Amino acid sequence: MHRVMMILILVFGVMGHAQSIDYNTKKGFAANGYDVVAYFDGKALEGKMDLTAVYDEVNYKFSSVDNLKKFKRNPESYLPQYGGYCAYAVAVNGKKVNINPETFEIRDGKLYLFYNQGKNNTLQFWLNESPNNLKDQADKNWEKIKN
Prior knowledge:
Elements: H1 2-16, E1 48-55, E2 58-62, H2 65-73, H3 87-93, E3 100-107, E4 110-114, E5 116-117, E6 120-121, H4 122-128, H5 131-145
Helix pairs in contact: 3-5
């Protein structure tokens, strides 16, 4: 009986510390393993397996030691919006859609990632359809779907 209680305490304790939002961690890393700091320099660069960090239970990879250090100093300033899901899909459909890590925008100091395959470059849709309005709608939708 004592052992069962200990297991239940552990299970519920872990559940209580679960992430507050759902992160897109395709390939086991945020941004599909791309360097979230490099985006702010206008570059989509794949991170390296030997340059990683964990923040809010999510793994991140970096392309350089400098970028890893920048992230560790202030991780929240580099996090992709909407858990790293496609900003356009969150805005228009209220859905969590995977991204192409090479399709991104930095707007007002924040990182937005987008789906891009074939003729569906959602970054172009975003830019053509009033990004500020879409951002406001995505913010509202994300509050409903983030958990």
